[in-house]
Amino acid sequence: MCENYKICPQPLEEKSRRPFTLLLLDCWQREYDRRPYRNFRFNLLEFENRLRRKFHPVYDFLVVVSFLKRRTLCTVRLTGIHLLPYEHDVLLSFIESLVPVSRIELRLMQLPTRFFELLQNRGARMKVKDLILEGTIVTTPDIEALHEFIIESKILRHLNVSNCSITQYDFPLLADAIYKSNSIRSFVCNRLMGKRITLDTTKIAHTVSSLIWQNKLEELEMQKCEFQSRDMEIISEYLKTPQSKIRKLNFAYNCIGCDGTEYLFRAIVLSNTLTHLNIGSNKLGTHGGRTVAKYLSSCYFLVYLNITWNHICPDAMNLILTTIKKPLKLHRLEVNGNQFDGKSASILRRLLDAGVLTQEVIDIVSVFDESIFDYRVTRYD
C-alpha cells in the first residue's frame, strides 16, 4: 500500500445555466393538459431535476406569473415555491394573475404574510371557489388576513388547510371565518397542533359543533386531531338533527373508540342525512365493530363507509358482512386492515357469488391459499 495517500481529483459538475422561458414552460404543460391550457401545474422539484439548477424566487417565478397572465386558466397548482416577503411587486403581480382562477392550489409553499394581506384586499374581486393550502405553513398573522378574505369572498366554497401547522389557538379564528362566510360548504383541516401543550379536544369539538349547528357545511374533514369518544358525544348532539346538511364526514386517524362509534352511528340513524363516513384507524376494536354491524342496516342513505385498520376481530367483521343484504345502498365499503378468518372468506364468497356485492364495492377478496388448503381474505387492489 502506498504510504503517501493522495485523494484523486474528482471532475467538478458544471452548474447548468439553462434559462427558464415561456416556451419551455409551455412545453411542460403538454404533459399535464391539452391546448388550450386550462389546468396549470408547476412543481419545484421537477424544475430543479430538469434544469439542474436552483429555482430563482424572482426571475424564474416571474416567468410563471407571466404565463398565468397570458392564459385563461381554471386551475393553478403550484408546489414547493418559496416567495420572498420583500418582493412586493412580484407578490402583487402574482395575486393579479390569480384573480380569474376558480381553483387555486398552493401546496408545500412558503408564503409571506404580505401575500395573505394582498389576498384579503382583493377578496371581492377574486373568482376562486376552491382554495387549497395543504402543507403550506400558516402563521397567526396569516390566519388573521385569511379570516378577512374568507368573510369578504362571496363565492369561496371549499377551503383546505391540512398540515398547515394550525394551532388550537388559531383554529377558533379560522372557524369564525367559516361561520360568518355565506358561501363555504366544504372545510378540510387535518392535523391540528397543540403548540407545546396537549390539544384541548373538548373545546375543538364544541367549535366544530357550532359549525355543524349552523346547518351550512356539507363536507367536513378533520383527520389526526386527537378526537376522543367524549368529543363524538358533543358533535353527535348537533349531527343527529334532521335539519343537518352534513353529507360527508371524515374523522380518520383519531381515537374515537367504540363509544365514539356508538354516538356517531346513533346520530346518523336519527338524521339519515350523512352519505359518506370515514372513521378508519380510530381504534374501534371488537365492540366498535359490533356497533357498526348493529346500525349499518339502518343507515339508509350511507353510500361510503371506511372502517379500515381498526383492530376489529373476525367475529365482529363477520357480523358486519352478514348485515349486507339486497338492495345494497353502499357504493363503497373499505374494511381492509382488520382481522378475518375462514368464515369471513366463506361469507364474502357467498356475497360475491350471489351478486349482493360486486368486487368494485368492497376492498377485500377471497382467494384460495394452497398452504392451508382453504380460502382466506386478502386485500383487493
UniProtKB/TrEMBL annotation:
<dbReference type="Pfam" id="PF13516">
    <property type="entry name" value="LRR_6"/>
</dbReference>
<protein>
    <submittedName>
        <fullName>Protein NLRC3</fullName>
    </submittedName>
</protein>
<keyword id="KW-0677">Repeat</keyword>
<dbReference type="InterPro" id="IPR001611">
    <property type="entry name" value="Leu-rich_rpt"/>
</dbReference>
<dbReference type="InterPro" id="IPR052201">
    <property type="entry name" value="LRR-containing_regulator"/>
</dbReference>
<dbReference type="InterPro" id="IPR032675">
    <property type="entry name" value="LRR_dom_sf"/>
</dbReference>
